[in-house]
Each structure stands twice: as C-alpha cells, then as structure tokens.
Amino acid sequence: MRVSSAVARVKGISMRQHLAFMQSAIRAGEDGALALAHKAGVYSHDSVKDRVDAQLRVLEALPASLKAEVRGVDEFVDSRRRAAQACATYCGNTPASTRSLLSASEGLGGFSGGAQSVADDIVASGHRFIDQQRDAVVRARDAPAGPGRLVGHAIEALTETLVSLDVSSGHLARQWAAVTRAVATHASERESASADGQSLKERLEAGTVVGWYSLEELAQVAAEDASAFCAEKYGAAPQVRVRVPGEKGHFEEWRPDPDRQTRNVLTPCGAASAVVALAHTEYALIEVLKNSMGAHVRRFGALDVDDDELPSITIDVSAHGAQAGWRVTDHGGGCAHPGAALDMFSSASAKRAPCADDAPTSASGGRAASAPEGEDWRYSRSFGAAFSGFGMGLCRSNWYLRLMGGPGISLLSLPGHGCVAAATFPRHGNVEDIVAIRAAAGKADTAIAAWAAARARPHSLLLAPWRGAWH
C-alpha cells in the first residue's frame, strides 16, 4: 500500500464548515444549540479518529526495512491508539447532561488545565517524533548520493505527512471542543441561573479559533508579540509598520481604531478580513517576524536596530475577492539559499553560529559586543527561550498555511538587501485540509520509491530526478 492510499479515506474539513456550524448554533436558539453541541462533539471526535487511523495506516504501509530506520515508531503508534480509543469511547456514548458534555469537550480540547487532553497528547507525541528523526535526516544530508542519502529524504517526507495529519487533528480537536464548550457552558449557567450576561453568540466568538478576522489587527498583534520577544533578547527591536491597500492601490500605513472594542468572527470585519485559523496565522506571522528581526539585528547591531532613520520591517495585508494574504519585507542581510530556509530540517543539526563576516555590527560600523563565553551569541540576556532555535518555525508555519488552503510561505531573498516572505490563502476558507495532506502523501510516495529503487540498484543515479520532484 502506498502512503497516498493510506490517507485516501480521510474526509476533508474546511474552515468554512466551522463557521457554518457556529452560525447554525446561533440560529437554532438556546435549546437547539445544545443538541448541535453534542453533534459537534461526535463529529469532532470522529474526525480526529479518522486522521489518527490514517496515521496508523501510513505506518503499516511502510516497507519493513524503511520502518526499521524510523525512530520512535512504537511510541508514536501507542499514542495514536490511545487517541483513537478515547474518540471511539466518546462517539459510543451520549452525554446525559450539560456537565458531562462540558467534561467531554475538555477531554478532547484541553480546557480544564488538568489531565492531558487528546489534542495535547497528539501534539506532544508528534513533537517528540519530529525530534527523533533529526539525526537520520541530518546524517543523510552529508551522505554520498545513493540509498544512504535517500533514506533520510524518505523519513523527512514521511514525517511531513504524519505532521500534516497532526496539525489537522489538533486544529479540529481544539476548534470543535471550543465551540462545544461555549454552548455547554452557556446552557449550564442558564440552568443554574448564574449567567454572566454573555449571549450565546458572544460565547461562541470568544471561544472559537476559526472565523472572520481582521488581518491588519492580527498583524499588529503579531508585530507587538515578536517585538517584545526581540527586545527581551537584544534590548531593542526594529520598527514594524502594518500596511493596507490605499485608494490608489498603493499600500498605506494602517492605524488601529481606538473605538473598536471587539472582533466579530462570524462576519467580515476590517478592511482586510478573511476566514483563518487564528492561532495558525498568528504563529506563522510571528515566526517570520522573528527571522526578519534577527536579520536586522545582525545587519545593524542590537544597539541601533530601533533607530528611526533605519528602514523598518513592513507587513502588507490584503483581502480581495477570493484571495487574502500577507507579505513581510525586511532589510536584513538576506540569505544565500532561500530554498533552504523552508527545508523541513534545514538547521536541525545545530543552532546557527555567526560567520566571520556576519557578526553583528552597529549602524555606525562598530562591532557589537560579543556574548560572554558559554552564553548564546544571539542575544544579550541568558534567561528564557532562545530567540532563534533549530529552524522548525518556518517549516511548521508552512504546514499551517498549507492546511488553510494556500501554497505555504514563499521566500524571495536579495543577498545583502533583505528578504520578502509572503503567504496567500482562500479568503472564505473554503478549501479542505485534505488537499495539503494528500500533497504531502504524494511527496512521501515519491521519496520512498526513490529510496527503494536506489536500494535495489545501489549504483543508479536516482537522486537528481527525486530532488526535482521534491523542490
């Protein structure tokens, strides 16, 4: 069985379906929404189980000799079987009360703050699985052409397929559990006469992770978070400007509306609005901004990076017709090989170290102070998480944006002048996530076939055509 055949039975889910359910719950009224919430619970558990079962089928489809090369398979399989069992148990029972429905939503999406939820277990075990594949993939990059290198490419492609299913599962679990929780909580408080005045619509909008969002507001929040992180590590952050299309088609700087208090996620809002998975889109923007800010610090120096006279980072957002998207432009040093920046494990072997001619300098030309021996060279303080790590931020962002229906992140690098990172996606969220999952499975089939052929004929030169198909 091929990997693509193993995921063929997975049912596609679109973000438009999430919105349709929320709108149906509101139209159904207070009592009808509770029945819909139970249906949503069954639907979400069944959808997660569908994707978990696909992951198990993918691993069963692997040739035994390749499976032996993949680390952590048994642990990964056990975690998926636990998730499948939890989902099957829920789907086989009918919650007897709003309290039991509320408990079920916490078990799926992880809102209780207590025991690990199904979604948490899926995500945590998926991260461990990625980490366990690093060594094999990195070793393959240094291996000569042939089976030794191709086995690493096959593991890399296999991991992308499994993680794409993971992202989809976690996204589904948390979204539908949030909706179910909002409805059940509202009904429970009505029963106990302790309602806080929030309408069902307000609760749904507060709990959802998919909806119509203002891209300019989202970009502003991402810029503030990334700037705060950069300032914590370097002492300062470059200026970031959010821009929207103006009347004549040129991008103009956007200013927040001080009178705007809430975001309506059930209907379009803002000049540039789109149906997006909020957490996914914000994560991708923050990761791109972290790379851009790091490039500015390396080029202009931490002491002067926030100088008004230096070029700023711009985030252009737009939404028109069927398409929406964003574009981040920086003025750092660029990268010599832009394709490598999106490679899944491109910097998995070690944290990046500065080149001799790439050490940070101040805008006045002086060398920035180097970090004391034993401390990370990239930032001035040693507390908290590192500002840049193992190169997984961009690739994970790529997966997220592909599952939203777009082609992922495109990167244009102008060495010595900066980079432009851009992403587009369907504005109305009407593309199923299975499109991206099947695309990843197709690449896995190509990689595994190339490895098998090279293993059968060690002296054949199959690397070049496979790399052409991959890139």
UniProtKB/TrEMBL annotation:
Q: Which is one GO molecular function term here?
A: ATP binding
Look up the EC number in the record and give it. Answer: 2.7.11.-
Q: Which GO terms describe its cellular component?
A: mitochondrial matrix
The GO annotation for biological process reads:
regulation of glucose metabolic process
- Name the InterPro entries on file: BCKD/PDK, HATPase_C_sf
**Organism's domain of life?**
Eukaryota
**Keywords of this protein's UniProt record, alphabetized?**
ATP-binding, Kinase, Mitochondrion, Nucleotide-binding, Transferase
- Name assigned to this protein: Protein-serine/threonine kinase
**Organism for this UniProt entry:** Cafeteria roenbergensis
- UniProt entry tagged with the keyword Nucleotide-binding: yes
Q: What is the lineage of its organism?
A: Eukaryota, Sar, Stramenopiles, Bigyra, Opalozoa
